[in-house]
Amino acid sequence: MNNSNPSIGKTLAIYTATGIGIASFIGSLFSGIVGMIMGGSTGSMLVKQFVATLVIGIAFGAPAIIWVSDRLATWIKLIVAIVPGTIIYTCIAWWIGWIPREYGVWAVISTIVMILVVTLIICAICGVVFRSNVRTMNDYLKRRQQISH
């Protein structure tokens, strides 16, 4: 194994996730445009899905900036990063029909629990990655500062 670049796996994962995000955005944008052109109930649903994707992306993405702070406890950062997106995602999922209300209370509860568990796992992974990036940048800045003095 080559130890000259031990972070190649992490870099590959980040680039892959970024590529998936870009492709998902392009696909959603295309669906939204086609939905506006199509009209009708199917077109309306495509537009709703596109708007939902944008809002959910912003709801999770914007608060994630909290991970760059070294001054807050990790549990506070996790709450700030996870709560707004989860609440907005759950409300949109309810509005758009992603939560299967027609199958009864247990389907609703199990879907919401699944949303919470998956969200927690994704946010924890993002938190580890963001925190690692912050530590790497801080180490780099400390080394630069030591060299200049």
Provide a brief overview of the structure.
The protein has one domain. Helix 2 packs antiparallel against helix 3. It has 4 helices and no strands.
Fold and architecture overview:
The protein has 149 residues and is mainly alpha-helical. It has one domain. The protein is 81% helix and 0% strand. It contains four helices and no strands. The chain has helices at residues 8-38, 40-61, 74-96, 105-148. Helix 1 (8-38) packs antiparallel against helix 2, helix 2 (40-61) packs antiparallel against helix 3 (74-96) and helix 3 (74-96) runs antiparallel to helix 4 (105-148). The longest helix has 44 residues, at 105-148. 9% of the residues are buried. The model has no long low-confidence stretch (mean pLDDT 86). Pfam families: DUF3021. This is DUF3021 domain-containing protein. InterPro entries: DUF3021.
Features:
0% strand, mainly alpha, globular, 149 residues
Topology of this protein?
Elements: H1 8-38, H2 40-61, H3 74-96, H4 105-148
Mean pLDDT, rounded to whole units? Answer: 86
Unreliable residue stretches: none
Shape: globular
Number of strand segments: 0
Specify the number of helices: 4
Pfam families: DUF3021 (PF11457)
Keywords: Membrane, Transmembrane, Transmembrane helix
InterPro entries: DUF3021
Transmembrane segments: 12-38, 50-68, 75-97, 103-130
